[in-house]
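Example (one chain per record):
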Amino acid sequence: MNVLVINVGSTSLKFKFYDMPAERLLAEGAVDRIGESVSTVTFTVGGIKIPQYQHHAASHEQAVELVMDVLESSYAPDVVGFKTVHAGSEFGPVVIDQ
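Predicted structure:
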């Protein structure tokens, strides 16, 4: 099972992508400076580091699209987990199915 774990910050999105239950790291990366004029994008896929590049990610939605574009060239997630610091009234694990 392929598991995508996303950590969302106020101006960043970091991710790790695992083959489970082997716990093998398939890919990882980050989109930093989301919402600014230039965002910094870093990825490592299949153990190969893609050179850091700049892109304009105006929103977290666009940052997720960047991540999915890179992953879909090699991998597709079966499940996605999110870690966020601004979850409002929600605490602990929450199933999002919509």
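Caption: The mean pLDDT is 86.
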